[in-house]
Amino acid sequence: MDMPLVISPLSFFDVPQVAEMIATNSIWQRYGIDYDTAYSVFAKALDRGETIYSGSVIEQIAGFIWFDLRATFYYSGGIRWLAVHPDFQNKGIGKLLMQFAEDKIFEKCPNVFLLAADFNASAHQFYETLGYEKVGELRDYFKRGITEWIYRKTKGPVVP
Ligand SMILES: CC(C)(COP(=O)(O)OP(=O)(O)OC[C@H]1O[C@@H](n2cnc3c(N)ncnc32)[C@H](O)[C@@H]1OP(=O)(O)O)[C@@H](O)C(=O)NCCC(=O)NCCS
Predict the structure, then answer these.
(1) 139: CA distance to ligand 1 center in Å?
(2) 159 C-alpha to center of ligand 1: Å?
(3) How is the chain split into domains, by residue range?
């Protein structure tokens, strides 16, 4: 990417932009997530004190990542939501946001997990390029009829 990506905590002021990014994306539309739902999910998360990170290019939000340091299976980090605006895709921004999250997670624990919908072949290729391995499937987890593929990136087991 020619322009530097600035990664910083998302503010309430940014919520409309990221809610719009989710609501206009066909992936989340399959789950029935509209603008109001997405807005509420982000606003409540910020209210609870959770940190979501945006990636901006010349002060425009190009994407965001929401992750947990230790929420998966008690001892592992997890990527919750990741999206790059269509105008900014395929420029390395998704990879930079993932590297940012992984750096923070791997400081605390040696495994990162995430879920990707069975129909999201593009995301499967993206995560596999980044070194994630498909380790399982969850049928009807978020929504009946959709299987979530479980991906893991590991530096080793929890107990060294
Ligand atoms: C998936 C997504 C986050 C990828 O972000 P991006 O900024 O477009 O991806 P990048 O440009 O950083 O790509 C990083 C690497 O993955 C590869 N990659 C990305 N998408 C790919 C695809 N569809 N097929 C093959 N490789 C792909 C790139 O070639 C690149 O490889 P390289 O490092 O060897 O050059 C983005 O497309 C997106 O927001 N999609 C819609 C929402 C979504 O699916 N989110 C994930 C939900 S689980």
Answers:
(1) 24
(2) 32
(3) 6-154
Domain 6-154 bears CATH identifier 3.40.50.300: no
Long-range CB pairs of 146-151, under 8 A, 24+ apart, other chains included: 146/30, 146/31, 146/117, 146/118, 146/119, 147/117, 147/118, 148/115, 148/116, 148/117, 148/118, 149/115, 149/116, 149/117, 149/118, 149/124, 150/113, 150/114, 150/115, 151/113, 151/114, 151/115, 151/116, 151/127
Q: Is the pLDDT of residue 5 over 90?
A: yes
Mean pLDDT calculated for residue range 26-33: 97
Q: Is the pLDDT confidence value at 117 over 70?
A: yes
Tell me which residue has its CA closest to atom 17 in ligand 1: 126
pLDDT band for 17, please (50, 70, 90 cuts). Answer: very high
Has this prediction a pTM greater than 0.85?
Answer: yes
To test ligand 1's pocket by mutation, which of 24, 95, 96, 126 has the most ligand atoms within 8 angstroms of CB?
126
Q: Which atom of ligand 1 is nearest to the CA of 81?
A: 47
